[in-house]
Design brief:
Radius of gyration: 24 Å
Pfam families: HHH, Radical_SAM
CATH superfamily of the largest domain: tm_1862 like domain
Structural class: alpha/beta
Number of domains: 3
Organism: Marinitoga aeolica
Number of helices: 17
CATH architecture of the largest domain: Alpha-Beta Horseshoe
Protein name: Radical SAM protein
Keywords: DNA damage, DNA repair
Largest sheet: 6 strands, mixed
Number of strands: 21
Length: 549
């Protein structure tokens, strides 16, 4: 028996699955099949596109596509599967059992500001509305299966370690980062946000036993992958709270991070509820201290602020008030804004802002600006701010309501965010910051764009042409609104190209050419360049320093 899994990529509030991320769906589906002795092949949808593999799967017994985007995003490492592509694959491969799973079965849309549509196709044998791993675990050995069945952590403990083997078949192996599952659902007991798909997809809040989490992590490590992200949680900081009367579980976090640090090159997290942070302020600070002690720099706690407009938060049942959001940002900055030896902050908040919500008015945009300016005025750091138009999915409160859209105001706000993000990025990644192991994912002209492995790593344009998937160390020399410019590290003025030199503040083309003509250079004071140019050269850490600082 052979099965093939096609990774159409997922992107949910509590999980990433577009390369270099690998979602739990893929590993658990593979693990369920491996458990029954079924051999599994694995391809990403980008591999299918690039190699024209549309009708290459008729010799398999199982053809499984997993995908679904429930939050809008922009992707560098891959493009999520489209509904047309799903139908194309299934229609050209009629021999195997054709199965569709993942959040896409709850509704399909790839664009924010739109209502999702239900999937309907005669080309699908089984549309699995429950957990794909539960179906694949039951179907091969029993007729007693249900398409809406949920899995539990007893099942996952059996199959997750087995599923680690599928990672070896990823086209970017071993330079991938896996989403680690620690909890499902949302721990809130006072209702859910108007737009949230987490309770729809994952049901009642439950937590995975720590020993099972660590066992799977060790299996992933043994499979050759050492990059982990606690992304599969609506509120990671609440992990273990069911064992601790709802309070943060300091003892559990200490064991989790001590053990994970032993097997990790990258150790990051993602979602955190700012209301939970404020409610448990003192204990949360202890958790944050544990994270900062063991994690990899550049880590983020993503906050579902959604809006700083109190009226909007109340009408959409968002579990945080504006001032509390601001306080949560302060708390994470207090503990996490320290920098590692490369100059990168250890742990910062990220903010999600949504538009198209119930109760939104033109004033909402101004209120959001006011709070963002407060963050800047207090010199607080925010690693990234995602500004999105909400997606409405069947089963959510928002789906049956059509709030008034303010598209012109949204466009103006996005324009405002360009300058705001530019200033914030300059604070987070000042000139001279060193970025290790940037993986090249795109080359345009004489600039190679790469990212580190981690949570929302910043897009970095490195001057020069490098090969795709090369690993390059870079030193920051300039900033955009969504990206930064870097030179290959260590920087050597006696080997630098004209393009590299003119990317440095204070150096134009004529100055760059004069520097090249005077090489070798042993002392910057011998050069007829501005003080700004000298200062820029001095602060490029790791470069060849000349003269006195």
């Amino acid at each position: 028996m052979k099965a093939v899994i096609i990774d159409g990529y997922v992107d949910e509030p509590a999980i990433l699955g577009v390369p270099p991320y690998v979602s739990t769906y893929i590993r658990y589906a593979a693990g369920a099949l491996y458990y029954h002795g079924i051999d599994v092949d694995y391809f990403t949808i980008d591999q299918v596109r690039e190699n024209n593999m549309w009708q290459s799967f008729n010799h398999y017994e199982y053809l499984i596509i997993i995908g679904g985007v429930t939050v809008p995003g922009h992707y560098l490492g891959g493009t999520p599967i489209s509904l047309n592509e799903i139908n194309k694959i299934f229609s050209l491969n009629k021999e195997p059992l054709r199965v569709l799973g993942g959040p896409i079965v709850k509704g399909y849309t790839l664009t924010g500001g739109r209502r999702a549509i239900k999937i309907e196709s005669n080309e699908i044998d089984y549309l699995v509305e429950g957990d794909i791993e539960k179906f694949l675990f039951t179907y091969p050995v029993s007729d007693d299966f249900k398409l809406n069945d949920k899995s539990d952590y007893n099942l996952i403990s059996k199959i997750a370690p087995l599923g680690a083997e599928i990672l070896k078949k990823h086209p970017r192996y071993p330079d991938i980062i896996v989403e680690m599952d620690v909890s499902r659902g949302c721990e809130r007991k006072n209702g859910f946000c108007s737009f949230c798909t987490e309770p729809l997809i994952n049901g009642k809040y439950r937590e995975r036993p720590l020993k099972d989490t660590l066992e799977e992590a060790k299996a992933i490590y043994n499979a050759g992958v050492k990059n982990f992200r606690f992304g599969r949680a609506a509120n990671f900081l609440a992990y273990g709270s069911l064992l601790n009367n709802g309070d943060p579980n300091i003892e559990l976090f200490n064991e989790l991070y001590q053990e994970m640090a032993k097997i990790s090159d990258v150790l990051h997290t993602d979602n955190a509820n700012p209301a939970y942070i404020v409610k448990h302020k003192n204990k949360i600070k202890k958790l944050l201290e544990i994270i900062v002690k063991y994690n990899t720099a550049g880590d983020i706690l993503s906050f579902g602020v959604e809006s700083f407009d109190k009226n909007v938060t109340l009408k959409n049942k968002i579990d945080i008030l504006p001032e509390d959001s601001l306080e949560a940002i302060r708390i994470v900055n207090e503990i996490g804004s320290i920098r590692d030896k490369n100059g990168i902050p250890k742990l910062l908040p990220g903010i999600n802002l949504l538009y198209g919500l119930i109760g939104e008015t033109k004033e909402t945009f101004e209120i959001n600006k006011e709070y963002l300016e407060k963050i800047m005025d207090e010199n607080l750091l925010v690693r990234r701010i995602n500004v999105r138009q909400v997606m409405a999915f069947p089963g959510t409160l928002l789906y049956n309501i059509k709030p008034k859209q303010h598209k012109k105001d949204f466009i103006k706000f996005k324009e405002y965010m360009e300058q705001y993000n530019h200033e914030m990025i300059k604070k987070v990644f000042p000139i001279g910051t060193i970025l290790r192991n940037l993986i090249i994912e795109e080359v345009k002209g004489n600039i190679s764009f790469g990212r580190q492995l981690g949570t929302y790593p910043i897009k970095t344009g490195i001057i020069g042409k490098y090969n795709l998937l090369d690993k390059i160390d870079g030193v920051v020399v300039d900033h955009g609104s969504r990206s930064i410019t870097a030179l290959k590290y260590p920087f050597d003025i006696n080997k630098a190209t004209v393009d590299e030199l003119i990317s440095i503040n204070g150096i134009g083309k004529k100055t760059a050419e004069s520097i090249i003509l005077k090489r070798p250079i042993n002392d910057l004071n011998d050069l007829d360049i501005t003080e700004e140019a000298k200062k820029s050269l001095y602060i490029i850490k790791g470069g060849m320093f000349y003269g006195k600082d």
